Each structure stands twice: as C-alpha cells, then as structure tokens.
UniProtKB/TrEMBL annotation:
Residues 136-360 form the Peptidase C1A papain C-terminal domain. Belongs to the peptidase C1 family. GO terms for molecular function: cysteine-type peptidase activity. Residues 1-22 form the signal peptide. It comes from Prunus dulcis (Almond). This is Papain family cysteine protease. Keywords: Disulfide bond, Glycoprotein, Hydrolase, Protease, Signal, Thiol protease, Zymogen.
Length: 367
C-alpha cells in the first residue's frame, strides 16, 4: 500500500474512532445545556441553538450593545457548541458543554482569560530538593485543611499568573502562621515588572501576562504583599500604590519542582499549594469531571493553583481508576466544579507537570 493511501486510511480510522467515542459518552446531568453536546447526529446539535443561546444569556447575564454584536456572538456560540462536541469526543471522562466563555472565539478567550508567558526562570529560582514519597496519602486536599482562600475571578485581564502566585503564598503563609489571608493580586498587576535579564522583553506586565516565578522574585525584592482588602483587585493595569507598611505576607524562597509526579505530590503535601502552568485549550468548554484528553498540547499558557489530588471510581475507557490533580482556577465559582478543575495524573496531561513551583513564607509582624 503506498504512503498516501495509508495516510488516508489512518485519518479515516481516527475520524471514526472520535465519532464513536462522542456517541458513547452521555453525561448523567439532566441539564440540557450539557446534554446538547452529545446528540445522536450533528444536525441535532444546532436544532435548538437559539433556545440554548437564550438560556446562556440568562444564566450568565450576557447582554450585547447592538443587534449586529448579538448576531455575531450567536454565531460564535454555535461554533463553540460544535467545538464542545469535539472536546467531548477527545476527553470522554470529563463533561464539556456551555460555559461562561461560550460566546468568545478561542483567540478572545486566550487573550482575555489566560496570560501565562513562557519566560525563563529567574536566577533565584532554586531546584526543589528531592523528598521521600513512600508515605504519601492516597487522597489529599488543602481545601479541607483551611489553606485555600475562596475562588477569585481575574475578569477580562490576563493576570492568571498573579492569582496562581498569591494562592501559593496564601497557602505557605497559612502553613507557617495558621492564618489564612487573601493577598493582593492587584499589587502584582500594578507593581511587578520583574524581567528576565537574559531575554529581552520577558517581563511581567499586568493584564498582558506574566510568570509565577517572576512574581515570587518581585515579592521577595519588594518585601511582601498587602492584603486583598488593602489593595483591592480592579482587573485593569494601573499605577503602583504599594504601601510597604501594609505587608502581611513575604517570600523567603521559592523553588522549581521536577516533573516527577510523586515529587509534585510530596511537595504539595509538605509545603502547601503549588503554582502550576497548564495548557488551557480544553478549559473553555469544561463543565465538570476528570479531564484526561487523548490529545493535548504541552505548551502552557495558563497559571493555576494545585491544591490536592485524588482518584475517581467511575469506569473510563482507559483506566478502572482515574487519579487526578485538583486545580484552583481564577475564573469565579460559576466556571467548572465551583471554580475548580480536575485533570488526570500520570501523563503530564496538557503540560500540567511542566512548570510547578513551591514558595516558602517569611514571617511578618504586620496584621
């Protein structure tokens, strides 16, 4: 068989496999906004699109200034219904459907709600020491231990990196003091312009993106972060208003953890929530469940907070038990599982093991 014929046969097989997977996975949830993504035929997918769009607008409080904008967003919404169905076929252990981002194009979503830059690590970023892994618990969740603040919302600002960094320092401060404080992302957005001296233009730049390790470097040099309530979040770039007398949490050091998942788990258990980078391509349509895509890029573009891990007892196609990481996101509680995302462990899915950092808190006397 010649090479073109072989390639055509392979593509046909993959297409049939994807279609078969999509038709066999039916979410248990009765919500029509979810069930719409797994119809019997593609024609049915858009049959009630106008009704679903009305429900979407009501659910998420969406309004549009003109009829032209409304019609354009309806077209984007229909395209995202088709995209969610494709994601369902590629990621059958999660549920994909309508989310608060269903009227955004993929490029709008990336520009406004991600924001992790691929920068080189700061010179002060140490390699985390190897920890013992033989006595790790089967399941672990820092939310149950009081080390995680409520889910926040970055809004239409590419500041995910700042929320990931504050979440890690909030956890580290809690481990040291027993006090859970909500720290200021806006201080990082306004004041952190830390750059990599070896790479031109690689600077933290507010709503235009940044890197968690650079945020730790800034916090180390600045002397710490203020409380959220003292320096509240606006979701826009503004002038720096940092008041060092109001610092409540400071960084003593930070480290980059190896990509070994046992080491990531050990650092999570012993050192608190971890700053993590991930490829967010499946997150725009994610509703719930354990995301374990068959295909997902490793190029990370979103910063989140690793708060725990566990295993799920349902019967997916590939595994009898699906171990997963629990990630705190910064898109509000109306996204995902009340603001959290589960992604499978063991495969570096979507690059989740590629950029993981731990931070240690320096005791401060301010309250």
């Amino acid at each position: 068989m010649d090479r073109p014929t072989t390639l055509v046969s392979l593509l046909l097989f993959l297409s049939l496999l994807t279609s078969a997977l999509a038709s066999t996975v039916t979410p248990n949830d009765a919500d029509p906004l979810i069930q719409q993504v797994v119809p019997e035929a593609n024609d049915n997918l858009l049959l009630h699109a106008e009704h679903h769009f009305s429900s979407f607008k009501a659910t998420f409080g969406k309004t549009y200034a003109t009829q032209e904008e409304h019609d354009y967003r309806f077209g984007v919404f229909k395209a995202n219904l088709r995209r969610a169905k494709r994601h369902q076929g590629l990621d059958p252990t999660a549920v994909h459907g309508v989310t608060k981002f269903s009227d955004l194009t993929p490029s709008e979503f990336r520009r406004n709600f991600l924001g992790l830059k691929r920068l080189r690590l700061p010179s002060d970023a140490n390699k985390a020491p190897i920890l013992p892994t033989n006595d790790l618990p089967t399941d672990f969740d820092w939310r149950d231990k009081g080390a995680v603040t409520p889910v926040k919302d970055q809004g239409s600002c590419g500041s995910c990196w700042a929320f990931s960094a504050t979440g890690a320092l909030e956890g580290a401060h809690y481990l040291q003091t027993g006090e859970l404080l909500s720290l200021s992302e806006q201080q990082l957005v306004d004041c952190d312009h830390e750059c990599d001296p070896e790479e031109f233009g690689s600077c933290d730049s507010g709503c235009n993106g940044g890197l968690m390790n650079n945020a730790f470097e800034y916090t180390l040099k600045a002397g710490g972060l203020e409380r959220e309530k003292d320096y509240p979040y606006t979701g826009t770039d503004d002038t720096c208003k940092f008041d060092k007398s109001k610092v409540v949490a400071a960084v003593s050091n930070f480290s980059v953890i190896s990509t070994d998942e046992d080491q990531i788990a050990a650092n999570l258990v012993h050192h608190g929530p971890l700053a993590v980078g991930i490829n967010a391509v499946f997150m725009q349509t994610y509703v719930k469940g354990v995301s374990c895509p068959y295909i997902c890029g490793k190029r990370i573009d979103h910063g989140v907070l690793l708060v725990g891990y566990g295993s799920s007892g349902f019967a997916p196609i590939r595994f009898k038990v699906k171990p997963y990481w629990i990630l705190k996101n910064s898109w509000g509680q109306s996204w995902g599982e009340e603001g959290f995302y589960k992604i499978c462990r063991g495969h570096n899915s979507c690059g989740v093991d590629s950029l993981v950092s731990t931070v240690a808190s320096l005791h401060t006397s301010n309250h």
